[in-house]
Amino acid sequence: MQKIKKVCIYCASSDKIDPLYKEATRVLAKALVKNNTTIVYGGGARGLMGELADTVIQEHGRIIGIMPHFMKEVEFHHKDVNEFIFTADMHERKKQFMVGVDALITLPGGCGTLEELMEAITLKRLGIFTKPIVILNINNYYDDLLKMLDHSIEEGFMNERHRGIWTVFEDPNKVLEAIQSSEPWSKDAIKFAQA
């Protein structure tokens, strides 16, 4: 089994969510810390971002926050995360999320999380990013998005092979298994990027 040393986690900053999402985030964080995996995330102190950071810190794991300067200025950043990369803008932040990671993990989230996930899927489709993209479908949160992706394939906007871009899992304890079971991906994917 390949060692998973560093992952990026996309997740929400909203506090107005069902506690089951927070619980799943804690379970995920503990599983990764137990594996000695460094976690990169958006640097926030609220919502699932805050839950993730708090749990990693409590479990004595390593977490790196990445955030544009303007967000720090309005005090969105987690004060107890001591490893931070501050970027010029959101575009640079997204690029930094992917540097040196072994996988991307997506927790439930709003438009920012969805935008990050869709950009990662697009980059993998083009062979620019080749690491596993795993979607934690807690409480069937991503069912509609997954149906839309299936519909895109069925309607010919994506290739059947593009189903291998992402892996879906439901149990946060199984995150390492989900990463390991992801289909290998090549930079040559650009050859079938068009449907």
What does this molecule look like?
With 195 residues, the chain is of the alpha/beta class. The chain has one domain (6-192): Rossmann fold (3-Layer(aba) Sandwich), CATH 3.40.50. 38% of the residues lie in helices and 16% in strands. The chain contains seven helices and seven strands; from the N terminus they run E-H-E-H-E-H-E-H-E-H-E-H-E-H. The chain has helices at residues 19-34, 47-58, 69-73, 90-97, 111-125, 143-154, 175-180; strands at 6-10, 38-41, 63-68, 84-87, 103-106, 133-136, 166-169. Strands 4-3-2-1-5-6-7 form a seven-stranded parallel β-sheet, with helices on both faces. Helix 5 (111-125) links the parallel strand 5 and strand 6. The protein is globular, with a radius of gyration of 16 Å.
Distance between the termini: 33 Å
Question: SSE order, as H and E?
Answer: EHEHEHEHEHEHEH
Mean pLDDT across all amino acids: 95
Low-confidence stretches: none
Secondary structure elements and their pairing?
Elements (H helix, E strand, L loop, with lengths): L5 E5 L8 H16 L3 E4 L5 H12 L4 E6 H5 L10 E4 L2 H8 L5 E4 L4 H15 L7 E4 L6 H12 L11 E4 L5 H6 L15
What key phrases describe this protein's structure?
7 helices, Cytokinin riboside 5'-monophosphate phosphoribohydrolase, globular, alpha/beta, 16% strand, 195 residues, LOG
